[in-house]
Amino acid sequence: MAVEEVIRQLVARARVAQEEYATFNQEEVDRVVKVLARTVFNNAEELARLAVEETRMGCLEDKIKKNKNKARIIWNNLRNKKSVGIINKDPERGIIEIARPMGVVGVVTPCTNPIVTPMCNAMFALKGRNAVIFSPHPRALRCMQRLMDMWWEELELLGVPANLLQVLPECSLEMTQALMRQVDVIVATGGAGMVKAAYSSGKPALGVGVGNVVCIIDNDVNLKEAIAKIVLGKAFDYGIICSSEQSVLVPEPLYEASVQEFCAQGAFYLEDEGAIGRLLQVMFQEGVINRAIVGQTIQKIGAMAGLDIPADRRLILVRGDGIGPQYLLCREKMSPVLTIYTYQNFSQAVEMARAILQVEGRGHSVSVHSNNPEHIEDLGLKVEVCRVLVNQPCATHNGGSFENGLTPTTSLGCGSWGGNSISENLDYKHLINISRIAYPIANPVIPSDEELWGE
């Protein structure tokens, strides 16, 4: 059977299911969404183990934590939100807002987060009473199939219509592209090529940009506390998360103390030029990141480069040799390798962050450890990113946390800077249409021409 016909049949079944699901009330919808999160929470270890085995990336213990924490925080954020029928009334403006489904959502998921990304996107889609068809990465197909089996064991008990959630029968670029052409909206998480394909499909698409988080340490912070957070973020899941810290900028007078503190907290400091050269040859091939090092331990990466790294070390710390397209160390590394630079004053740090993000990661995020509001706001005003995370581990908190006000998600929009249609964390509100009833305002205030144009 031709690929287009296979997809046509999948979409047709999804539309039937979605039309029935669209009749569910808010309480019924929320029970469905809760099941998606609770299933991942209750089976966090099994799903994490399968993810590590199939993708051959990441840290089992961290993936268990990720499965539990993302399930907790995303459900907590969604459980009291209206997404069915009338969701808002504004008597002053005479506006009533009504939530409507978008239809069938095509969800493209990566191998770097094969459990929590499909969970998150499915929760958002089903919160909006949509149907979902997943296109998983080939190295995460078993994860997706097992997750679906677990979900349906619970969803059938709630009377959820069959085919509301489906997976492509095979993982191929041709099938994914056909899916993109036939669904109503696309959520694409993955490589830049896949996101570009989503935006080129002719259908509304929500994609995410490349991460390359620059982290700045100001001179007024407790160095031990700040570095502990950076190490926690950088080492988490072996650096595979797009919000993982990639470069750290420290004041020149604090450089030696910073290196010592990083080493005290598990860093392996690499300063031999020959060793650094071998590391870069292993990490990048013709300027492109080597997939074999993504989400791996530094011991494995080090062995590939002829380095003997002790088992108690958690990340490799390397001094940056420059900023620009020709300097690979200022790129995203998707592994527990962190580049360290020095700066003379905070204004220079801001400019260095801008320069690094021009190479890669524009639009995504920066992280800053500072107690100076002026410095923090200056960073936010000048650097072209959608998130400035303050005094927190970026990898674990940038996608939302109980400890900050960012929307909990696994997909982070990067705005026009990153070639994306949204400049915030993806949420269920991006997967609903809103109809607005507009009444006349009872006593409208209409300004005179003098008020409008006068000096």
Top keywords for this entry?
455 residues; alpha/beta; Aldehyde Dehydrogenase, Chain A, domain 1; 2 domains; five-stranded parallel β-sheet
Detailed description of the structure:
By secondary structure, the chain is an alpha/beta fold. The chain has two domains: about 5-210 and about 425-440, Aldehyde Dehydrogenase, Chain A, domain 1, CATH 3.40.605.10; about 215-400, Aldehyde Dehydrogenase, Chain A, domain 2 (3-Layer(aba) Sandwich), CATH 3.40.309.10. Helix content is about 40%, strand content about 20%. The protein has helices spanning about 5-20, 25-40, 45-55, 60-80, 115-125, 140-155, 175-180, 190-200, 225-235, 255-265, 275-285, 300-305, 345-360, 375-380, 395, 450-455, and strands spanning about 85-90, 95-100, 105-110, 130-135, 165, 185-190, 205, 215, 245-250, 265-270, 285, 290, 315-320, 335-345, 365-370, 385-390, 430-440. The strands form four sheets. A seven-stranded parallel β-sheet has the order 10-13-14-9-8-15-16, with helices on both faces. Helix 14 links the parallel strand 15 and strand 16. Helix 9 (about 225-235) packs across helix 10. The termini are far apart. The model has no long low-confidence stretch (mean pLDDT about 95).
